[in-house]
Design brief:
Elements (H helix, E strand, L loop, with lengths): L7 E6 L2 E6 L10 H16 L5 E6 L3 E3 L4 H5 L6 H19 L5 E5 L2 E3 L1 H7 L3 E5 L3 E3 L13 H9 L1 H10 L2 E3 H7 L4 E3 L4 H13 L3 H14 L4 H15 L3 H11 L10
Parallel strand pairs: 2-3, 3-5, 4-6, 5-7, 6-8, 7-10
Antiparallel strand pairs: 1-2, 8-9
Helix pairs in contact: 1-3, 5-6, 9-10
């Protein structure tokens, strides 16, 4: 008897960790196994000093369709069961991402609907297949975004546009997602992962400590005053100036050679 594959896969490609949502027969809808592994693999990537960038994508022709509608129809996620599923499961992924200094790129290979779209926009960057479609479809199920979509989306597109997308459940294509600033890049479907991995490799080739502090500085700046940010960033820059990678970068520039960074 064949053992079924887990609903989330983990692989290392150079300095990039690749997480693949792996429930294509259910359009990569959530399952308890998937949610648990998603968080665990993010934790693994966080602890692995050899990983500089994380990529999340989906198996098959869907990125993620969010909650399983069959479970909803059968009443499996109601009242406190829904609360526990979110707080003990999905929300752990969001909070782990918040605590992860390494950049996370979503490679949106197909439909990203409802919570699936929100799982993409909670990543730091997004590369989108030209065949992908995105939609905040909660309202069609009589629900609202349970995994922080109402927190993330207005920060990308503004309150008015976010409300329009939430209240109409309009599905947008890759080009509109790009024009709205929801995705960073659109790639031909067949070369999506190639383009995503190129971006990941470019970032992974930068000084690792500076990459991590850069990400943290950007997010810190969105929630602080200017004076608090200036105090914070001056401390971070002072620490980076002490690193071997900073000295190596300066020497390599003067010697007209490619620097070799060691994350120290």
């Amino acid at each position: 008897m064949t053992t079924p594959l887990p609903h989330m896969l983990y692989a290392r490609e150079g300095k990039t960790a690749v997480l693949t949502i792996n429930r294509p027969d259910a359009r990569n809808a959530f399952s308890p196994d998937m949610i648990r592994l998603w968080r665990e693999y993010l934790e693994e990537a966080k602890k692995d000093d050899g990983v500089t960038v994380v990529v999340v994508t989906g198996a098959g022709d869907t990125f993620c369709s969010g909650g399983d509608i069959r479970d909803m129809a059968e009443g499996k996620l109601r009242s406190w069961d829904m609360k526990r599923f979110l707080w003990d499961g999905v929300h752990r992924i969001i909070l782990t991402l918040e605590d992860l200094d390494k950049p996370v790129i979503a490679a949106i290979n197909g439909a990203a609907m409802g919570a699936g779209m929100d799982m993409a926009i909670m990543c730091d960057m997004r590369v989108c297949s030209d065949r992908a479609r995105l939609g905040e479809s909660y309202i069609l199920m009589g629900l609202c975004p349970g995994d922080a979509g109402a927190w993330f989306l207005p920060r990308l597109v503004g309150i008015s546009k976010a409300l329009e997308l939430f209240l109409t459940a309009d599905v947008i294509d890759a080009d509109e997602a790009l024009s709205l600033g929801i995705v960073n890049r659109v790639a031909p479907h067949d070369s999506l992962m190639e383009e995503t991995m190129k971006l990941a490799a470019k970032i992974a080739g930068m000084p690792p400590l500076a990459v991590r502090m850069m990400k943290r500085a950007v997010y810190q700046g969105t929630t602080s005053t200017l004076r608090a940010h200036l105090d914070y960033i001056s401390s971070q820059l002072s620490l980076l100036s002490e690193t071997d990678d900073h000295v190596e970068a300066a020497k390599a520039f003067l010697e007209k050679r490619k620097p070799v960074f060691k994350g120290k």
